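Figure 2 data, in text form.
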Amino acid sequence: MCPLPLYELNMKEKVLLVEDSAVVLKVLKHLVAQNPNFEPILANSFETALQQIEIHGDELFAAVVDLHLPDAENGEIVDAVLERNIPTVVLTGTYNDELRLSLLNKGVVDYVTKDSRYSYQHVMKVIERLRKNVSIKVLVAEDSTTSRNFIRNLLEQYRFQVIEAKDGQEALAILESDSSIRMLITDHYMPVINGYDLVRMLRRNVRFQDLVIIGLSSEGDSSLTAKFIKSGANDFLKKPFYHEEFHCRVIHNLEAQEMLNTIRDLANMDALTGLYNRRYLMAEGECFYQSAVAAQRPIHVVMLDIDHFKQINDNHGHLIGDKLLEGFSALLRNFFSDSLVARFGGEEFCILNDICRVEEISTRLKLLDDSLRNKGFTPEDIKITYSGGVVSEVFDSLECAVKVADIRLYLAKNNGRNQVCSLSEVG
């Protein structure tokens, strides 16, 4: 049985703000509260900060602290927060390079001076980056245990999930088994498979085209950087490196890849619903379909169409129609989170699933029915129904399967709507 996906709870992350200036604290509170992912927790003194830490404890996601507080003028707040393993950004009015280096070596995430409006925006950018990093897996391939632990600690400061490999062969096996890994940081001189050869092997496989790769080495000639990048690495660092440079390179390369993914999504995603569009479905869906057939996995093509949608647009307006499409799409993402779901056009949707049995597809569609009956997506509380066609037999191509599913959908329409037609109903 494949479990049905559950609704995710929209939990806000608590950010501790420690600042004795009422004006600065108000600015920080406003910026944090504006972000729907965060909840500000305020403290205007060292004593108050300790109380907030005691109250909220492990619920604190990050902290932004001033160094000089009336009751703790020498940065004691930094040690107090770091002792609880809370990622900490220092926001101070004075710049001291020696102090900055000392704090970064202690493990603070960043050291920011209050010299412009951008400083506060930068603090928010760092906090938001930490939130994104929580879901990002980074594989560290390094044969030296000391270096591997050092890199792990640097990455965990920024809230990354870290996986380790002691050589290139182990790294390759881990990457093959876990498609959710977003970044590889690999040393060059490793036994079995070195870093350079590992990069070349990965880039030959289209599956790893979006994997961010950063090469490392403490030895070798000056051409090693160029060799790594020409073989497909995104970046290269010579050891020993300063940890602030390391963090900057990691974040820069991740954000560059995220920007590329955003641009790609603009071409592949439907702007209104956030689902894949028809172009992506017919291009990538064909590979999805043929892979399932070749592996002898069950493959289901489901076509759904909202009933009487033109009447809804005519009677209530297109803005209401758009809200219904958005709401319906959100439910499809929820109940078919393990599937390829696309807006086929207008009010018609297509789902490809290669995991569940046909009985489980039917169960999910019934749960979708229940949700639609109990949920209104507009102030008018308009309830909607849909008709559908399901194909679970194997065809030569996705296009053929879609055509048959579409025929069954319109058979369901002709039989009175608000139903799903499959092979058993046709027979």
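Caption note: Residues 243-268 form the longest helix (26 residues).
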